[in-house]
């Protein structure tokens, strides 16, 4: 498990968990992307559960870090057949639905925080 001020990363039972609780810094974004790369190297496939506790846009440095590694991100997503996005924010849930339509071979479902158990059940299901 990796834990910083604004994020928590963990993997359990074939699911990579990313918890975001604040505005990500460039260092945190780099850490998250490096961690996802390790998961991709260690697991042929894994599902992803992203919980966004607050609607905070990443810092400019974090956005720059993600954009500079976009090819790598898309390559890593080939190992992820399903992703659940959990948030109280309707905006985040709607954005997840749009991403799901744009990223080939990745099924994304968005859930409210109260439906976390349902989201994990969906990720664990065949």
Automatic annotation (TrEMBL):
InterPro entries: SpoIIAA-like (IPR021866), SpoIIAA-like_sf (IPR038396), STAS_dom_sf (IPR036513). Pfam families: SpoIIAA-like. It comes from the Bacteria. This is SpoIIAA-like protein. It comes from Litorimonas taeanensis.
């Amino acid at each position: 498990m990796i834990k910083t001020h604004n994020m928590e990363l963990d993997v359990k039972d074939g699911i990579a968990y990313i918890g975001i609780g604040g505005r990500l810094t460039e260092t945190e974004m780099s850490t998250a992307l490096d961690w996802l790369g390790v998961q991709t190297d260690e697991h042929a496939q894994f599902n992803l559960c992203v919980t966004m506790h607050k609607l905070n846009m990443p810092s400019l440095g974090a956005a720059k870090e993600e954009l500079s590694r976009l090819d790598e991100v898309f390559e890593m997503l080939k190992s992820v057949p399903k992703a659940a996005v959990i948030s109280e924010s309707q905006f985040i849930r709607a954005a997840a639905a749009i991403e799901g339509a744009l990223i080939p071979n990745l099924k994304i479902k968005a859930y409210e925080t109260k439906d976390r158990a349902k989201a994990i059940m969906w990720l664990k299901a065949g």
